[in-house]
């Protein structure tokens, strides 16, 4: 099954060109997965709080970075990029 690019995907170059989800979208999916699949986060008496962010350790910020384009304007505001 081929993965189709979405409005939240971007094209990156590593060993080859490929479409991947924006890091903030990825971390948001991880957060939802943990929140819905780990009892600690939905315990009725004392649920543990859960938040998410992206630590882009290999990223060098630049003015025209594709991660910060208008296409992704809403996503990083919910799950911050660091």
Using only C-alpha atoms, the radius of gyration works out to 15 Å
Overall number of structural domains: 1
Q: Averaging pLDDT over every residue, what do you get?
A: 79
| Strand order within the widest beta sheet | 1-2
- Based on DSSP secondary structure assignment, what is the total number of beta strands? 2
Shape: elongated
Verbal overview:
With 82 residues, this protein is α+β, with helices and mostly antiparallel strands. It has one domain. The protein is 29% helix and 12% strand. It contains 3 helices and 2 strands, in the order ββααα. It has a two-stranded antiparallel sheet. Strand 1 (9-13) and strand 2 (17-21) form a beta hairpin. The protein starts with 8 loop residues before the first strand and ends with a helix.
Topology:
Layout: E1 9-13, E2 17-21, H1 23-37, H2 39-42, H3 74-78
Antiparallel strand pairs: 1-2
In a few lines, what is going on in this structure?
The chain is α+β, with helices and mostly antiparallel strands and 82 residues long. The protein has one domain (10-78). It is built from three helices and two strands.
């Amino acid at each position: 099954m081929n993965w189709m690019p979405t409005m939240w995907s971007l094209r990156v170059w590593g060993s080859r060109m490929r479409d991947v989800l924006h890091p903030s979208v990825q971390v948001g999916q991880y957060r939802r997965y943990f929140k819905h699949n780990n009892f600690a986060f939905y315990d009725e008496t004392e649920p543990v709080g859960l938040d998410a962010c992206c630590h882009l350790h290999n990223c060098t910020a630049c003015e025209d970075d594709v991660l910060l384009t208008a296409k992704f304007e809403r996503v990083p505001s919910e799950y911050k990029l660091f």
